C-alpha cells in the first residue's frame, strides 16, 4: 500500500527525531496497532522524497485497505502542509534557521485515541520517563505482542480491571480510576471520538475537560499530539513555559498567560512552532547525532 503525502516530508528525519523521545532513536520504522481485532505490525518506508511517497506493509495483511490507508495517513500527518508555516517562519530570526535545519520534519500521531488519552493521564505531574515506564508495565501486562513489538491494550482490555490491577503497574489510585473510567466510556460508546472532528478547538477542549481526570492541559495535549490540531498549545506545561522563555525571553520561565501571548502571532501554527522549537532544543542539548 502506498501513501502520497503533502511535502516537504523527510520521514527518516521525523522518525529518528520522534522516536528519540523514548531514549534512543529507532532506525527501523515500524509501529504496532490493533486493526480489525488483530495485533498488527506496520512497516513504513519513504520510497520517494520528491513527491513524497510512502510505502506501508502490514502483517497480517490489513482488511479494509482503504480505511487502513486513511488511518495511516492520520498517524503520519500525511496531509499536514508545512510550506505555509515555513513561509512565515523564514521571516522570524528565531525560527528561520530552525525550519531550515529541520526541513520536512513532521510529528506523528499515536495509533489510536485511547492510547493517546491514557498517555496524557499518565504524564500528569510526573516526568516523561516515569510515565513511559508505567505505560510499558501496563502494556506488558494487559496488551499484546506482534513480532517483537508490544501493542497497547484496547478499552475492552482495561474496562473491567480493578484499581489494584493498574496500581500494581505504578499508577496512583486516582489515575487508575481515571483510566478505567475512560476505558468504560469508550467501550460502551458513550465517548465517541468519531464525532469530534466537526468540533472547533475551544468546544472540543471543553468537552474533553468534562471527563473525569481531564483538565485543560490534558485536553490541549490530546488535541495537539493525538488529533493533529497544530494551532493548539498546552501552555500550562512547565516544559513549554521553559522552552518559550529560552527562545523568546532570555531564559526566563514564562507564565501560561505569557506563553499564550508570545505564541499568538504564530496562529494557526502555534503547536507546530512549539514542536520545531523542541526539535532545535533537543539538538542543542543532545548533540546533532543523537537527536537525528
What order do the helices and strands follow? EHEEEHHHHHEEHHHHHHHHH
Report the mean per-residue pLDDT as an integer: 93
Low-confidence stretches: 288-292
Q: What general outline do the C-alpha atoms trace? A: globular
Please write the CATH class name of the domain at 113-227. Mainly Alpha
Query: Strands across the major sheet, in which order?
Result: 1-4-3-2
Amino-to-carboxy terminus distance: 27 Å
Percent strand = 5-15%
Counting helices, strands and paired strands, the structural category is alpha+beta
- Biggest sheet: strands, sense, closure? 4 strands, antiparallel
Oligomer: single chain
GO biological process, one term: DNA alkylation repair
Keywords: DNA damage, DNA repair
EC number: 3.2.2.21
Enzyme class: hydrolase
Structure characterization notes:
Its EC number is 3.2.2.21. 50% of the residues lie in helices and 11% in strands. The protein has 292 residues and is α+β, with helices and mostly antiparallel strands. The strands form two sheets. It has a four-stranded antiparallel β-sheet, with helices on one face. A hairpin with a 2-residue loop joins strand 2 (30-35) and strand 3. Mean pLDDT is 93; it is low at 288-292.
What's the short story on this structure?
This protein has 292 residues and is an alpha+beta fold.
Q: What key phrases describe this protein's structure?
A:
single chain; alpha+beta; 4-stranded antiparallel β-sheet; two-stranded antiparallel sheet; disordered C terminus; DNA repair; Alkylbase_DNA_Glycosylase/TA; DNA-3-methyladenine glycosylase II
